[in-house]
């Protein structure tokens, strides 16, 4: 069994990643697997402060390149301060968003270029990609409707972007599936939460075993 893995969770807004990660982390702990659950942007003090700048709905004047660089800066600090030490200690690390978010949101949807944003992030994290990425696939309009229906989630600067922007993000993720087929696994996020958890759990067990 190999539980010393770095596994990331990706998907459009409102896909349910955070809820599933909490449930998966509980299951892993019940099986006595040493797991660290964390998130991006954030996870540690410096990155959380950068998060407040990036996602503040009032910061509409932020240039897309500034946005991409701030995400990369937060990612670098988070990775080297929290993720890398946990992996070195033999832990299983599961992370809510990582490099693929930047490739889909800033690289593709913002139009900076996937390769350009990849280059920035390779510098930031030393070209480290996850061992496996689980992509929560859901139509953008469904995910956004979930956010506004529940009302118990922070509404950030990305949530209030136009539907065409979120559709571009979705397209970007699908392009990444084609680019990294050996790493990215898709789950249907447009189903009840228990079914999503079971799909994700099955993928995790295969990776660990």
From TrEMBL:
Residue ranges constituting the Thymidylate kinase-like domain according to the UniProt record: 9-200
Q: Which UniProt keywords apply?
A: ATP-binding, Kinase, Nucleotide biosynthesis, Nucleotide-binding, Transferase
Reactions catalysed according to its record = dTMP + ATP = dTDP + ADP
Enzyme type, top EC level: transferase
Q: What is its EC number?
A: 2.7.4.9
Q: Which CDD domains match?
A: TMPK
Which residues hold ATP? Answer: 11-18
PANTHER family hit by this protein: THYMIDYLATE KINASE, UMP-CMP KINASE 2, MITOCHONDRIAL
Purpose:
Phosphorylation of dTMP to form dTDP in both de novo and salvage pathways of dTTP synthesis.
Q: Which family does it belong to?
A: Belongs to the thymidylate kinase family.
Protein name (Swiss-Prot/TrEMBL)? Thymidylate kinase
Native organism: Lysinibacillus pinottii
Lineage of the species this protein comes from: Bacteria, Bacillati, Bacillota, Bacilli, Bacillales
């Amino acid at each position: 069994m190999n539980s010393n893995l770095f596994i990331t969770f990706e998907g459009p807004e409102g896909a349910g990643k955070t809820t599933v990660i909490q449930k998966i982390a509980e299951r892993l702990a019940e099986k006595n697997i040493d797991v660290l659950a964390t998130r991006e942007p954030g996870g540690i003090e410096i990155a959380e402060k950068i998060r407040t700048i990036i996602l503040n709905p009032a910061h509409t004047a932020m240039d897309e390149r500034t946005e991409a660089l701030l995400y990369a800066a937060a990612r670098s600090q988070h990775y080297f301060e929290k993720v890398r030490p946990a992996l070195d200690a033999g832990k299983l690390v599961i992370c809510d968003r990582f490099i693929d978010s930047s490739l889909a949101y800033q690289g593709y949807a913002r139009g900076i270029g996937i390769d350009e944003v990849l280059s920035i992030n390779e510098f930031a994290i030393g070209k480290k990609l996850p061992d496996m990425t689980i992509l929560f696939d859901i139509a953008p309009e469904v995910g956004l409707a979930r956010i506004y229906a529940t009302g118990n989630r922070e509404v950030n600067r990305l949530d209030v972007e136009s539907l065409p922007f979120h559709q571009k993000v979705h397209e970007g993720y699908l392009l990444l599936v084609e680019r990294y087929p050996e790493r990215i696994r898709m789950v249907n996020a447009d189903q009840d939460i228990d079914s999503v958890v079971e799909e994700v759990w099955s993928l995790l067990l295969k990776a660990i075993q």
